[in-house]
Amino acid sequence: MFKKILIANRGEIACRVAATCARLGIKTVAVYSDADAHAKHVASCDEAVYIGASSPKESYLRWEKIIETALATGAQAIHPGYGFLSENDAFATACQAAGLVFIGPPASAIQAMGLKAESKQLMEKAGVPLVPGYHGANQEPAFLQGQADSMGYPVLIKASAGGGGKGMRIVDKSEDFAAALVSCKREAINSFGDDAVLIEKYVQRPRHIEIQVFGDTQGNYVYLFERDCSVQRRHQKVLEEAPAPGLSEAMRQQMGATAVAAARAVDYVGAGTVEFIVEQQPNGDMNFFFMEMNTRLQVEHPVTEAITGLDLVEWQLLVASGEPLPLKQEQLCITGHAIEARICAENPDNQFLPATGQLKVYGLPEHVTFERTAGGSTAVNVRIDSGVREGDTISPYYDSMIAKLIVHGATREQALARMDEALSKTHIVGLNTNVQFLRYVVRSDSFAQANLDTGLIPREEAALFDQEPVGAAWAVAAAVVHTLHAERAQADSNQSVWTDPWAKRDGWQSHGIRARVFEFEFHGEKVAAQLRYLHDGALQLSVDDTSGALSYSYGDAGLDISFAQHRIIAKTYKNSDVVSIFTAKGAAQIIAIDLLEHARETHEEGGRLTAPMPGKVVSFSVKAGDKVVKGQALAVMDAMKMEHTIASPTDGVVQEVLYQPGDQVVEGAELLKLGVAV
Ligand code: ADP
Ligand code: ADP
Ligand code: MG
Question: Domains in the chain, start-ordered, CATH in brackets?
Answer without folding.
Answer: 4-103 (3.40.50.20), 132-201 (3.30.1490.20), 206-464 (3.30.470.20), 472-597 (3.30.700), 602-675 (2.40.50.100)
